[in-house]
Batch of 4 targets.
Target 1
Amino acid sequence: MSWNQRIASALQQRHAAHQWRQPVTLDSAQGTEVEVNGQRLINFCSNDYLGLANTGGDDLAAAAQRWGLGSGASHLVCGHSRAHQQLEEALAHHTGYPRALLFSTGYMANMGVINAFAQRGDLVLQDRLNHASLLDGAQLSRADFQRYHHLDYTHLQQRLQNFRESQANSSRQGLAMVVTDSIFSMDGDLADVAALSRICQQQDALLMVDDAHGLGVIGTNGGGVREHFGLSPAELPLYVGTLGKALGGFGAFVGADSDTIDYLIQFARPYIYTTALPPAVAEAMLGNLRRMKDNQLRQVLDGHIQHFRARALEAGLNLMDSVSPIQPLLVGAEDRTLELSQKLRQRGFWVTAIRPPTVPEGSSRLRITLTAAHHRDQIDALLDALIELCTDPQEPRS
């Protein structure tokens, strides 16, 4: 088989399985209402949970006047500016860690952390539904990689115990690392990070949590999963947060103790070998970090979530068990999920159809995301459309 034949075969298989994906081009700024190909759509697929994506424009413009466009180099050459340092200090303070380290993307942060720590002879254990960046990080490391059943901590403990028993007769004593999302991006459910912390302390395993969808959304002051569960930094030693979701910007960071941050500076290759975030972006993120602390935004968001779930469940919609802004409506078949997404688009709603390989076979879904910027009448209009489509005799439910 030639390379061209392999490519053609793979593309044909994607088409046949109703798994073909292409980007949709926006003709407007991100928001609850967007324009696509001349059509105005109410947007229910953005991760801009607090509606901050459009609030920092003036901050960015002012910062660009000072810093220009690019950083010019990686952090360790000459790309680390005072703006980067101030943002790292502010993120560390907000999340309660001694230090924070900026990465250019969440994907790079997860890859960098796992590969810096996991070595040959070690074991990386991950929740089966973790984000692709976490799974890829483990697969590309030299460590053994195993997954435990979703949110099944008995299964996790069994795998840790098996690893410890195998180490008894090994000449090299490996270390164990447990990695999880906080809020799972396609299901919207929340890991019991307090239970994971106890298990890791008992089993002498290193705990890493990707709080991409939790930072700004959960916790009394939007501090994320550590604040939500009342854990100390020592009880959650490796914390990854992103700036592109509730914070409405771009980039990512790791929160940890001082030695851990120094270790990542030495050994996290995506940090070492990547151009730093534009300093103007880093400075503008300070404004959104201040705005994110507004608890009224979280109160509005929580109210939207409760209202949406109450009406949807009362109508018999097949919602998955989520108390987060991510509200998946389970459909099942890929073609049916695509059809529903397209019919919602015709009614003026943008809701993404999520299909394999992003989710397991037979569990395709509409991924509805709510934000503090949505109006209640927009949410009710979406619910009316969903109820109509899913209760119409011509539109049988999955």
Target 2
Amino acid sequence: MFKFVMVFAVLGLAAAVAPVSRSDDVHAEVKVLSSDVRADGFDTDLVVDNSIQQAASGDIHGNAHGSFSWISPEGEHVDIKYVADENGYQPQGSVLPTPPPIPEAIVRALAWLEAHPQAPEHGVHH
């Protein structure tokens, strides 16, 4: 249940704080709003005429997946897809930051260390 609350809180926050790119966005109308809550899960959909969209599905085990999207002030289509399960909230999207690649020297050093494990020390007493 907590996962559902957190997912919808994040989605609501994303929709609420999404920057307004056009002055007519304050008058945007909801084109689709559906919610199907069942004993075995749920499905929701939201489509607003200013290009904001949200969809989510969940199951009885607390797993959820979905997406939300909008048009940024720069005119870029922002699309986030996510899964929320036993491994936590896992968003994916081209606008999300990603870690830099591991430097080649570090990759080589890790490979060398793996190929040359340190032998256990015998006879050392402290």
Target 3
Amino acid sequence: MTIAYFDCFSGIAGDMILGALIDVGVDVTFLKNELKKLPLTGYDISVKSVECNHIAAVDVTVAVTEDQHHRSLSDIIDLLKRSTLDPKVKKQSQNIFYNLGKAEAKIHSIDVEKVHFHEVGAVDSIIDVVGSVIGITQLGIEKIYCSPLPFGHGFVSCDHGLLPLPAPATVELLKGIPVYSVDRKQELVTPTGAAIIATLVENFGEMPPMKISKIGYGSGKIPSEYPNVLRVFLGDLAQKRKNKTTKEKTGKNNKTTDSM
């Protein structure tokens, strides 16, 4: 079984996920061609190799080239439905945005259909979400594991004004998922990153026994004294060794005794 382990020692965001997946083998040309199946224009994707604290990583930047309007959850779901993407990619992308919409609705005490995605509805976030699902599908990843998630502190500015870190939507999405605090005054886990992993990851905790085939690093955007990267391990789930049963051991010992 092909699995991936997301090692989030410096947090997680949509662009970091996409960068790490490209670093472990997602073909950029294939990715861009697949994203063209979305009825979405006015953006450009650049992928480049960077170095974060002496660690080679992949940086993905989505530049908006045309004015974009805020989108409701229904707008985004409709956009995905009208695309010619693989049905599995469509469904998983819809689930990610729906979970994000539910979190925002809970925070603002409104109906989920009335949620308007400001930052999240921007083109770059749509590309991060759909691109990540495309990458996971292309790599044939059957199961995703993830480390506990670090929370920074402070405040972040958005369309709603100043919000505490971690952002309320992020915390809502990560209920029931192991987290811990670190002394870093910055946003380490974004709502988009939280929505992706909360929807797609099956197990959180230590790395499972696995045979690692590739390791990828996706770069974050905020300069830091720490390596601001997401590390993704790709490989096969290792088979657990089966201990011989007492009966088997006894039988072997009896055979030895009989031959003496």
Target 4
Amino acid sequence: MRQLLQNAFGKLTRLKPLDSFSLAAAKATHLPLDIPIEEERKQDYDSRHYYPVRLGEILHDKYQVVVKVGFGAGSTVWLARNLQRFNFKERYAILKVSTSHADCAPEEAHQELRLSRQIASAKPAHPGLEYIRLVQGSFTISGPARPHLCLVYVPMREPLWLLQRRTTDGRYSFGLLAYTTKFLLTGLSYLHNECSIIHTGGSFTNVLVGLEKTLSLDDIVADEINSPSPRKMLPDRTIYLSRNDFGHPKSTPGRPKITDFDTAVQMTGSQKTFSHPIQPNCYRAPEVILGAPWSYPVDIWNLGAMLWDLLEGKALFDGSDSNRNGEYSSHAHLAQVIDLLGPPPKELLARGAKAGLHFNSGGEFMARCNVRPRKLVDTVSTIGGAEKEDFLRFASRMLEWLPERRATALELLDDPWMRSLPG
């Protein structure tokens, strides 16, 4: 049996842990203890809820933590060496170590794991699965107070916003935009049609691009050992600055993948809509702002609004409210949508529990912000001619007031602009 397994999967290898981290720590810059950094700057931060990960530590008797690559309100994220693997397995993994807070973070991590398993098994041959980042495994570690769920992922390069920042003018080329859009729509079509899942939170931060073939994670680890990340040394933990900038790609990065399903929802049984608040501010669909029932079309609006960030380097709707010192407000957001699309249909207002906050009984906008009519054509300056016509026709199908009038992901993939792409 052992020989059969070895023939099928290759040899199980046990790597020796790196022992350079204690020496590297002596060279690291120690940061002031009174200035919050990284996860400490998150609202409602409580150190008791975070597992005190240490560089060089071995988790689950398998993963040696080598670089901190990120953090959030509900987790810290680390690059780790896979010390126990078959030959065909990745040498490195990304570990998302969840907080142990009794409220939402562990629940969100368990949801991510549950949905990832369902996505992986729904229809494995579907081309959209290639554009979804799945959880590869999970384990639990004991923390000072409670257990912590750890999710394992394949390493990725960086989020879309960082790749975009590396371009000459902070904008995507039209060709790169077209392929990125096609890949993301292929992923969304799989989520919507095969998995009954609505992502609800698309943004620059949760679409990741893959590693290029020329990028060596060994070099990233060597950089950490030779030039250790600055850190704050506390009595019960060390907080490291994240090392998540892998430099300018030396070759073409891998394809994008949709990530972070901790706030995603899944249609079950007779439930066809939801009504709770979702989505990043500037990508929020009108029905969500108005408190109306929402479904799959929120993801289409979300992606449609994101296209302007990629192409123009700025948000189509930022919701900046001059009456609130430029801070976001849903009222200003609605005003900007009205600027471009005209007033919303009364049938949409009739569905919205919050419509009365913004519109009178006659359906007229109670403008507390300046409404300055604009044309969608005037919002695009980086392309012209047939390219501009193709893009605006395509994007207009995504940015409709009424959710039921928006094109689906499958319909958009059949758009002439998408069908014109080679491959």
